[in-house]
């Protein structure tokens, strides 16, 4: 059978396979006591390289199908919207100086050590390649640490608030940088005037969203909750997310930064179902989150080329950036100024990288700054920090 129907059936089969693989990876990770994102990433690596391992090339479509790439990008947008919905900028500001210092140290130290490692191990790589690799070292995943803090009964601890706030500050700073880097790469040359212009636009974009969220977020959420019909509230959230993602792309930043901003603005919107039960935007978007975000991580894993792991340079780079990633965040814990706060908890809580590092690396891969070998070194770092960070943190939290 040929034609549009055959193409549709092929797409449906592809989506079924990837979603089933994501579900299996999540279940396996939970059984092993690991973060679900690690299972999704590993199952994606397996499927994307099954042709290499067995000679059976059936699953090669996971890396090649444009439709999967599009819905994977939608998964990244949903992920960042959800992170924005979880982020209370007012609470971040209240944490104070400690979170700011932890964030700054957590960027400067990994960046400096990471750039030095790149110079020593891959001196022939371009500056943009090194900068994207360094950027992937500087963003951590608060979600993994928060899960461990929650399981240990420490969710309300000041260490937890510092980890969340520092992570948010790191993410905003790094996305600002990689957004400008992407613009430079796509333009094909370095234009100081253009970079300053795009950087100014990006800064204004972030400041505007932050100010509106802090000053008018509750009022905006209340207005939409009261004035909009229930059937339109999800549509408003989706349109706002896509529009801000589009706007961020237009001014030279990554679209997912705009999606994050949409989450900040929509976090106070509520809707009622026919029975009168109130739901938040996050709860209404949860089906899309549970469907598209796991698919996104499976597709990220599928981009890894296992043959590059046999390259001595890739293994050395992966281990080097892992050591830098761990050491940089441990040092960041010394940024805590208040007495009575466990600096080691904060430092170890900042170690797992997971989805944020993968997002930055995928941005570098998309614009051609990272090749399969460089991307694979980031994946090695993500897998190792996600595997070993949570058990160490759990042990520290449970010790007297």
Question: Can you tag this structure with a few keywords?
Answer:
two-stranded antiparallel ribbon, globular, mainly alpha, 400 residues, Na+/H+ antiporter like fold, 19 helices
Layout of SSEs?
Elements (H helix, E strand, L loop, with lengths): L3 H29 L3 H13 L1 H5 L6 H4 L1 H21 L2 H7 L1 H25 L5 H12 L3 H10 L6 H30 L4 H36 L2 H21 L4 H12 L3 E3 L5 E3 H22 L3 H4 L2 H21 L10 H7 L4 H13 L5 H27 L2
Antiparallel strand pairs: 1-2
Helix pairs in contact: 1-2, 1-14, 2-14, 5-13, 5-14, 6-10, 7-8, 7-10, 7-16, 8-10, 8-18, 8-19, 9-10, 9-19, 10-11, 10-17, 10-18, 11-13, 12-13, 16-17, 16-19, 17-19, 18-19
Order of strands, widest sheet: 1-2
Q: How many distinct domains? A: 1
> What share of the residues lie within helices?
over 70%
Low-pLDDT regions: none
Residue-averaged pLDDT:
78
Topology-level CATH name:
Na+/H+ antiporter like fold
Radius of gyration: 21 Å
Number of helices: 19
Into which percentage range does the β-strand content fall? under 5%
Largest sheet at a glance?
2 strands, antiparallel
Question: Pairing-aware structural class of the strands and helices?
Answer: mainly alpha
